[in-house]
Amino acid sequence: MESRTNKVHFKTFKAGKFWLVSGITLAALGGSFTISGVGVHADEINGQPVSAAKDTTPTTDVSTNKVAEATPAQQQAIDDAQKDVDQDNRDIAKNQDDTAKEQANNDDLNNQTANKRDDVNKAQDASDKANNQVNKDQDAVDDATPDGYDDVQNAKDQAETDKNKAQSDADKAQAQQAAADKAAKEAADKAAKAQADKDAAAKAKADAQAKADAAKNKADNTPKTSNVHHDPTPAKPGSQLDPTNIDSEADLPTELVEPSGLTDEEKNQEYYASTDPWYKYTGANDTSAVIKAGTQLTAQQQKELAQYALTLINSLRKQHGLKPILMSDTVQELGNAVVNLRVKNGTEAGVHTDTGSAELDDAISKVAGGNQYDVINGGENLYGSILENSDTTLLQLKVQLLQFLTGMSFADGHWGWGHRDNFLSHTYGSQDEADQVYMSFNLQHYLDGGDTGLNTITYLFDFWVAKTGTDGTAEKALSNGAYSEYVNHGYDSVETNPAYTQAVNLTIITKL
Q: What pLDDT score was predicted for residue 228?
């Protein structure tokens, strides 16, 4: 039997985290030797599967594990050892490659001389040397790892914890500072707004004062009153239960109008103007002259009343298609003669004049140029005045005149419509048509009173008729100084100036 000697060499190398073992078997047959079955397998020895040898030596992967809190010198030693390990691994790879090449040339080596065995041995020695160097380098890495590594890591972890806590405290402090800054900014903003409001209030006050001063200056330089004209607004008669108010001259009507709804009783009442008027004086805007109690009207005031009476009576005549009555200064002389005659005869206030007296004929003859029969008295109306014991105004007398003339024209049934007929007189005597009708208007004062029941001043309306077919001398004389009719121009009043009121109101507003 052929003797065979097997020699197995084991070679270690690192694969990842594991140290592996491979074997190289040399067989010597007789006086010759053969290198056979040279194969490096990490998982097989003598054809049997093996597990990777478990390395009980602590390993440190310098590529993944960090040395905690190593000194710079230690860190450098670790880095240098790692470089050596990496170089050794490269050497192992190269040796493995060389071994593969050697195995590829097995057939040639078997045919070569025995000197090749030395080459194999040398290669094995180089592999062993490399493995030894790897072990030394690993030891150097292990030696470089500082003692108390866990304590260092714990210290590092604690430092990280402290760092995190410090950062958290810093963050809180920063948040608190931010909140304080925000509160300070809000306080500053409020203070700024308060100052702005204060400045605005001061400016508003100054502006208001300036406006108030300007308004006061305007009020001081604006006339307090102004003349205001009021256009006429003629009133219509009301009823005796609801009379129309006359507040001013502008309200006076210039036409006699029959009150609506007159009953037969009202048309035949005895005192149609005493207590139940169709027109009622209120005088809210009365600007007419005041007549003091116990005084007489001036000639101009009496003429003004006469013109108003003439206007009203002619409006009635117009409604009946009659010529207007005329008044003049000459005709008023006839009226004055009537008053003188009444005084001479002691005619009481409520008694008509004796127009057939010689004195009156003489007065007619005088004004008519000696033609006393060309003009005759055509009738007389009279009524008592309110002038007695109290002050009155010219407007109040006109309203009373309007009231009496309305009653004489439309409610004269009790007096047989005689007053109305005198207003509508148009004949000379009983039948002949008059050429012209004239009227005198006079006031007779009864200062000693009387027991007639009338007031102490009597209004006298005397009508004078010119005969038709004369030479016109009487008509010409009676027309001398003819009166114009009354015209309602409204009235003027002195009133508070609206511009002044506005200026004063503005002054009040600016003070609020």
A: 84
Start-end of H helices in 105-148: 106-111, 115-144
User: Measured in Å, how far apart are the chain's first and last C-alpha atoms?
Assistant: 143
Name the amino acid, one letter, at 36.
S
Three-class DSSP labels, 50-83: CCCCCCCCCCCCCCCCCCCCCCHHHHHHHHHHHH
The reported pLDDT for the residue numbered 41 is: 38
State the 10-residue block means of pLDDT for the chain, 512 residues long.
Answer: 46 50 42 36 41 41 46 86 87 84 71 68 81 81 65 82 88 89 90 91 84 80 84 88 92 94 86 73 92 86 96 96 94 92 88 85 81 82 74 92 93 93 83 83 73 64 85 84 90 82 78 65
Strands 436-445 and 457-466, bridge-based pairing: antiparallel
- Kindly state the DSSP code that residue 321 receives in the 8-state scheme: T
Tell me the HSE value of 227 on the side-chain side, using a 13 A CA sphere: 2
What is the CB neighbour count within 10 angstroms for residue 75? 15
Angle at 456 between CA 452 and CA 460, to 5 degrees: 90
Length of the chain: 512
For residue 500, the model assigns a pLDDT of 83
**What sections of 346-427 are H helices per DSSP?**
358-367, 394-410, 418-423
CA–centroid distance for 292 within its chain: 57
Residue 482: CB partners within 8 Å, gap ≥ 6?
Answer: 326, 327, 328
Q: Regarding beta strands 279-281 and 244-246, do their DSSP bridges make them parallel or antiparallel, or are they unpaired?
A: parallel
Which residues lie across from 49 on neighbouring strands?
44
Q: How far apart are CA 217 and CA 323, in angstroms?
A: 61
Task: For residue 259, give both structure tokens.
Answer: 């009150």
pLDDT at 303: 95
pLDDT given at position 316: 97
Q: What is the pLDDT of residue 476?
A: 85
Which regions of 207-297 does DSSP assign to beta strands (E)? 225-230, 244-246, 279-281, 290-291
Nearest Cα residue to 218 out of 452, 8, 506, 6? 506
